[in-house]
Amino acid sequence: MEKTFRILRYDPENGQAARFQEYKVPYEKGLTVLEGLYYILENLDATLAFRSSCRAAICGSCAMHINGQYRLACRTQVSALNSDVITVRPLSHLTILKDLVVDLKPFFDNYKKIEPYLQPAKAGTGKEYLQSEKKRGKIDKLVDCVLCAACYGSCPVASMNPKYLGPHALVAALRFINDSRDGKSQERLAIVANDDGIFRCHTIFNCQQVCPKDIDPTNAILKLRVKSFVSKLTGKI
Ligand code: SF4
Ligand code: FES
What we know:
Shape: elongated
CATH class of the largest domain: Mainly Alpha
Radius of gyration: 20 Å
Strand order of the largest sheet: 2-1-5-3-4
CATH superfamily of the largest domain: Alpha-helical ferredoxin
Number of domains: 2
CATH architecture of the largest domain: Orthogonal Bundle
Order of helices and strands: EEHEEEEEHHHHHHHH
Distance between the termini: 61 Å
Bound molecules: iron/sulfur cluster, FE2/S2 (inorganic) cluster
CATH topology of the largest domain: Fumarate Reductase Iron-sulfur Protein, Chain B, domain 2
């Protein structure tokens, strides 16, 4: 049995318009979309470009638009798509560098704005920053983000406003604000509580639907709004 992989091809350097190209890929039980792409690369067309690394839903590099949904290619079983045609496009509204590879600079530029690293109140103590199991529970799920950009690619607000921090950066902000070891909660809230941050979100829920790690960025943004209101009312930010 074969499946037809219909892949968006585009190379800005050859001057040709973007087009879909079809490939026949032998199907066997357990085939993932990523394995299908590798079959094409190794057997049919060595010019096909896509990103991947871990093949285990951990590195976040293989997010793409597959049969109408943003997904990780490595964790998407072809059988689960219930179709003989697998249509694959790159993430939306990011510049295509080649085929399925997009320029993630805007995504990571926004991520860096929330200073995504632990900033303890007392740094340089020479001791470990310990955390109880209960307090660790407050950052459960949030720490699972693999920076795949599926949420960012699916977000219409991000598509219209490159300055919008994006669901991924706001998830990371809440992750550090909720972390008992971090000492910069108010400073982090001040970074996100503005029109390029939590108040730009239109609560469309796309990010919630596509996150391959079931993180629910929409809920994270709503929690940040509540925290920022409290901080503003109490004059902390
Ligand atoms: S929040 Fe989910 S969809 Fe967004 S970058 Fe993280 S893992 Fe990917
Ligand atoms: S290859 Fe790493 S997440 Fe898919």
